[in-house]
Design brief:
It is a single chain. The chain is of the alpha/beta class and 196 residues long. Helix content is 42%, strand content 16%. The longest helix is centred in the middle third of the chain and has 15 residues.
């Protein structure tokens, strides 16, 4: 694994129900700062997205936003970022974010957040990249999802090695330490009948 210089953070454009989610976004930024890790994210100034970017910038770090043109027109873009890339589509946005990042983490978020982290995790298990993927499990937000993923592995729709590729931690510093030590497994894609 090459040094983790840039972290792609997927998260909500909403702040969520409780303050713990914004607190965790700030805590992640605070864990990134001493490691010199720059933020790559969706480029908005609202919700958890805006919170993590604001904290990275407050701490003197770099925040790279990637936003599709359609959302720029809705005036959601953060205007104080180190760099802001405007893409013609959501697909182009996700591709550029993946290219700019050395790892991927999901803070609490909604459907878009789920889709983004699952897509890059899928790319990892297919061998398209060897970058770490993870969930920052704030206030038990991802407990139900991780239980379901364990069930999927138990039912042999997901290999245990593939399930283990998704790092889940509640402490941002521990998550970043695990990312720094991450080495992608060499996995065959398909599971044969009777394999566990």
């Amino acid at each position: 694994m090459k040094k983790l210089k840039s972290l792609c953070v997927y998260c909500g454009s909403s702040s969520g129900r409780i303050d713990d989610y914004a607190d965790a976004a700030r805590a992640l930024a605070q864990a990134m700062a001493p490691r010199g890790i720059r933020l790559v994210y969706g480029g908005a100034h609202v919700g958890i997205m805006g919170t993590v970017a604001d904290e990275v910038l407050r701490l003197g770090g770099e925040a790279i936003g990637v936003i599709p043109e359609s959302l720029m027109k809705k005036e959601l873009a953060h205007q104080g970022l180190t760099e802001l890339h405007v893409t013609p589509s959501m697909h182009a946005r996700k591709t550029l974010m993946a290219e700019l990042a050395d790892g991927f983490v999901a803070l609490p978020g909604g459907i878009g957040t789920f889709e983004e982290i699952f897509e890059v995790w899928t790319w990892a298990q297919l061998g398209f990249h060897k970058k770490p993927c993870g969930l920052l499990n704030v206030a038990g937000y991802y407990d139900g999802l991780t239980a379901f993923l364990d069930h999927s592995a138990h039912e042999r729709f997901v290999r245990q090695e593939q399930r283990d590729m998704l790092v889940v931690e509640s402490d941002p510093a521990v998550l970043l330490d695990r990312f720094a030590a991450y080495s992608a497994p060499e996995l065959p894609k398909w599971m044969k009948r009777g394999e566990t």
